[in-house]
């Protein structure tokens, strides 16, 4: 078939009346609005819109994002690098909001990758995310490589990048960084020199959030941040089977705004100093629950004393934190400590969030935390699905209690103590009772599957004299009650 005939045939494949259809209001929108719509779609779906009609044929060329990750490979079967080359040759990008790539890097790609990064920066890219490995691609044999990569100099002096994500490489920083508008930095399985975080935090004055996922898996992770005008929040995820146990986490940050631990309590020592008062502390070590033999509870106490020691150390360090968020694993550790009548540090927190399944052996830990926080103003109980420690019968025989009457008994021992508590929240994420008709909310149905929650509500209600409102929230709805309105249930 002649080229002219092929072109005519291609043109006829587009509906002739698509632009003129009275009901096709979307196609009548301005190009800028259509591009914004495409930017919200996955790359595959955005590019396929070129087949809708003549009106849509070239709209994709003005998209503000380049997003080729393993999802692209999975949905189309096309490799990332050839797809990126073809896309950039055909598009007419004048402004780029997002540039995201995931690929298995080798040194032959250096010039090509750097030219793409330079193009993205030239077009004012705001979000840059580069993953130098493709572990998600199950068609290939997994390779745990952390290559050195020399980024173009223009990256380190960019004024457009607001959010930067890097994964699977050894970070080699220049003497001076000038990322003056960088606010979020995410590093995933990156090998960092000891002074890397200090240099980044010092030179990137607007940095607000630093996320470190499995960084320095085979060595110590050092986070030093000098005093700065903008407090910085740090999130650390160490996978239990990813990070070498015989390593330390070292933090020195006098302007820390918040610190979140996720994953497992893997490292041997947590050496943290110069933590300012009033920070946010989030302990989400729930990966430990799925390694049940890591912590074993016997009649003699906890088998896995290192974790108990580290948790106690963290509580001492963050004693003056204003916001605490505890996972079920921490609550269960504290349950054992309370049942064995071990000392619990007092906390200055005014806001407390508890992720709990409200299981029997979580109740003492919840009571322990409530007692340790006499200055509470806000209490949130997030009801989640959780598993329990491996608890030996020798422990349950020695420390057993009547589950249904636990809060009643604790209430008899505890005088009214939360004079500052104003707001009590319950969030039900997994229960069957997720929605209700207007005016038909039932508190007892809300706690279906979490029966201990009703007794906890009664306990807090009776001890917080100045409670102003109680909020019940699911994934779809929310309702607020005055304490006096709950009397019919209590």
From TrEMBL:
InterPro entries: F-box-like_dom_sf, F-box_AtFBL13-like, F-box_dom, FBL13/AtMIF1-like, LRR_dom_sf, LRR_FXL15/At3g58940/PEG3-like
Pfam families for this protein: F-box, LRR_At5g56370
Domain of life: Eukaryota
Domain F-box: 23-73
Name of the protein: F-box domain-containing protein
Organism listed in the record: Eucalyptus globulus
């Amino acid at each position: 078939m002649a080229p002219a005939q092929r072109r005519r045939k291609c043109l006829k494949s587009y509906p002739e009346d698509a632009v003129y259809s009275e009901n096709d209001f979307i196609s009548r929108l301005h190009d800028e609005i259509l591009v914004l719509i495409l930017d919200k779609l996955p790359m595959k779906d955005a590019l396929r819109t070129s087949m809708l009609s003549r009106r849509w044929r070239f709209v994709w060329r003005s998209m503000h994002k380049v997003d080729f990750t393993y999802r692209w490979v999975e949905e189309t079967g096309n490799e990332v690098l050839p797809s990126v080359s073809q896309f950039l040759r055909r598009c007419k990008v004048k402004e780029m909001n997002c540039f995201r790539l995931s690929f298995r890097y080798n040194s032959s790609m250096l010039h090509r990758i750097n030219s793409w990064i330079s193009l993205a920066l030239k077009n004012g890219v705001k979000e840059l995310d580069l993953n130098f490995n493709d572990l998600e691609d199950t068609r290939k044999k997994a390779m745990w490589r952390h290559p050195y990569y020399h980024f173009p100099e223009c990256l380190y002096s960019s004024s457009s990048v607001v959010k930067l994500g890097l994964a699977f490489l050894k970070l080699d920083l220049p003497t001076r960084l000038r990322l003056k508008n960088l606010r979020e930095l995410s590093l995933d399985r990156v090998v960092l020199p000891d002074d890397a975080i200090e240099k980044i935090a010092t030179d990137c004055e607007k940095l607000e959030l630093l996320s470190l996922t499995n960084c320095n898996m085979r060595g110590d992770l050092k986070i030093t941040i000098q005093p700065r005008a903008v407090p910085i929040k740090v999130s650390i995820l160490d996978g239990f089977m990813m990070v070498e146990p015989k390593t330390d986490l070292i933090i020195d940050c006098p302007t820390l705004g918040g610190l979140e631990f996720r994953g497992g309590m893997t490292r041997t020592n947590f050496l943290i100093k110069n933590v300012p008062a009033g920070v946010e502390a989030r302990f989400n070590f729930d990966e430990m629950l799925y390694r049940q033999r890591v912590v074993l509870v016997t009649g003699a106490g906890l088998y896995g004393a290192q974790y108990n020691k580290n948790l106690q150390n963290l509580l001492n360090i963050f004693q003056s934190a204003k916001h605490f968020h505890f996972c079920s694993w921490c609550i269960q550790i504290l349950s054992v400590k309370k049942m064995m009548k071990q000392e619990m540090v007092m906390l200055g927190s005014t806001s407390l969030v508890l992720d709990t399944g409200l299981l029997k052996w979580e109740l003492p830990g919840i009571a322990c935390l409530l007692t340790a926080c006499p200055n509470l103003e806000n209490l949130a109980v997030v009801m989640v699905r959780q598993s329990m420690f491996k608890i030996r019968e020798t422990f349950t025989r020695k420390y057993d209690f009547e589950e249904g009457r636990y809060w009643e008994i604790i209430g008899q021992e505890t005088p009214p103590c939360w004079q500052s508590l104003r707001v009590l929240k319950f969030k039900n994420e997994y229960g069957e009772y997720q929605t209700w008709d207007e005016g038909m909310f039932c508190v007892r149905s809300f706690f279906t599957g979490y029966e201990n929650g009703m007794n906890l509500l009664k306990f807090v209600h009776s001890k917080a004299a100045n409670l102003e409102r109680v909020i019940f929230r699911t994934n779809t709805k929310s309702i607020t009650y005055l304490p006096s309105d709950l009397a019919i249930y209590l």
